[in-house]
């Protein structure tokens, strides 16, 4: 459906933000996971036809979406990282304004907006000015906005930034529902945002894909390589320097280190089942 082929983005006088990256995407929730500065936003802006790649191509249903972006734009809902609202408008007024910008007729926009505010659980606040909304509510307005034209592709850039844990869960579930019959491409630097909901995760660093596949496959990749050992607190810092540590927790018995290693890293280390955080850290530090 959406193909990002050998994409490179070089900003003026800057290093490469995206470096020969290829992703072929179909329906489902795809998590683009990577540390700050990995190139996620740059890639999503290119996928959303907001920015052109320096080289490489974007194809939507086989057609060139760089030279002729209109087809993709019609099928697309995009929530940028820096999504802003007009604080004096109510949710209904703001969405009606955006619907008009998108060229939707006032009548179809009206019923669609009611539907969407219901979907994102904002019907109760529909007629309140956005200036009084919480961060989580504004993110949900942002999501509602992406869905105005019933898009086949939804691209959301770090939508959970600034949300509290409860809002995060609600948001994750909403995106997961949306992905039942469309492509939802979501960027984040938090493994928990995509764990349990993504059908596919691509780990990006330095503008390249370091790891890509369904979560189960990512877990299989580190199976047998994750270990835990409890070490004396005074030894922990040096060991963390030497070993690839995915977690360290202070316990009454000492510091419990979780370590990625192909063979037993410490005499009393025991093998443990991997989780996605292990796979992510492994991919980013490889
Ligand atoms: N408009 C721009 N002009 C110059 N450099 C840019 C621009 N946008 C991004 N960069 C640089 O490109 C690199 C990748 O940035 P990008 O925002 O795509 O990464 P990211 O993974 O989304 O990170 P973050 O989560 O911090 O937004 C960074 O080094 C960034 O400083």
TrEMBL record:
Keywords: ATP-binding, Nucleotide-binding, Transport. GO terms for molecular function: ATP binding. It holds the Pfam family ABC_tran. The keyword Iron-sulfur does not apply. PROSITE patterns: ABC_TRANSPORTER_1 (PS00211), ABC_TRANSPORTER_2 (PS50893). Residues 2-231 form the ABC transporter domain. Belongs to the ABC transporter superfamily. This is ABC transporter ATP-binding protein. It comes from Dactylosporangium darangshiense.
